[in-house]
Specification:
By secondary structure, this protein is mainly α. The protein folds into 2 domains: about 80 residues; about 35 residues, no CATH class. Helices cover about 65% and strands about 5% of the residues. The model has no long low-confidence stretch (mean pLDDT about 85). A hairpin with a 2-residue loop joins β1 and β2.
């Protein structure tokens, strides 16, 4: 009963987790990648057409060039902003972001009577039991 009430009242995510954004991404990058995907889609629909193959290769090369230039420009701007007072943690955090590395946050750990509850479902059961006890007359 508690589980079904929670499912009905607590909003749930879709389960889709987008890639973590990199700081050098721009609308120009989005356009270049979109054009590359569209060219590939046209090529896939008409496999034997040499002009579509050439168009896809050009779009792929253009997308590679745009992404490489965006990365390079962002890196140059960041390196020029670093000085002797910049903390190393900030420097390496930015380097990780530029590389596209993302470490998701871990769910909180609940300790009850010396037992660690790490599962979100078990944590909900524990808290739900406490709420039920407080609501009883």
């Amino acid at each position: 009963m508690l589980h079904s009430a929670a499912l009905n009242s607590i909003p749930r995510t879709s389960g889709y987790f987008p890639k973590h954004p990199v700081p050098w991404w721009s609308p120009v990058c989005t356009t270049a990648v979109r054009e590359k995907r569209a060219a590939f889609s046209r090529l896939r629909r008409n496999r034997g057409d040499p002009t579509l193959l050439e168009n896809f290769r050009r779009a792929r090369a253009q997308a590679r060039r745009v992404l490489k230039e965006a990365r390079h420009a962002s890196w140059k701007a960041y390196v020029s902003s670093i000085n002797t007072k910049t903390p190393l943690t900030q420097v390496f955090r930015r380097v990780r972001k530029m590389a596209g590395k993302f470490s998701p946050s871990t769910p909180p750990v609940l300790k009850v009577n010396g037992i660690k509850i790490m599962n979100l479902f078990d944590s909900g059961q524990y808290h739900g039991g406490g709420f039920c006890k407080s609501l009883q007359p």
